[in-house]
């Protein structure tokens, strides 16, 4: 089990990023959450098998589609899985 914390910068707010991230997470089969931050970035915490978390992270790094433009993804690997059972959009 792998858990990553991501901070995504670029054109990532007001363009459907959170809902698209949730959709991609469900397609890949990873769990966690996504939320907008006041500084214009988006924060994601994601966990699952190493392969699936890496696949999801690569989708996010490339920009999951639409008007979304990802400039940078800061990735921190966390040691303790939380046992998420879904992927949520936090407000």
Automatic annotation (TrEMBL):
Residues 3-91 form the Acylphosphatase-like domain. Keywords: Hydrolase. It comes from the Bacteria. It catalyses: an acyl phosphate + H2O = a carboxylate + phosphate + H(+). The active site is at residues 18, 36. Signal peptide: none annotated. Pfam families: Acylphosphatase (PF00708). GO terms for molecular function: acylphosphatase activity. Its EC number is 3.6.1.7. PROSITE patterns: ACYLPHOSPHATASE_1, ACYLPHOSPHATASE_2, ACYLPHOSPHATASE_3. Belongs to the acylphosphatase family. PANTHER family: ACYLPHOSPHATASE. This is Acylphosphatase. It comes from Aquibacillus halophilus.
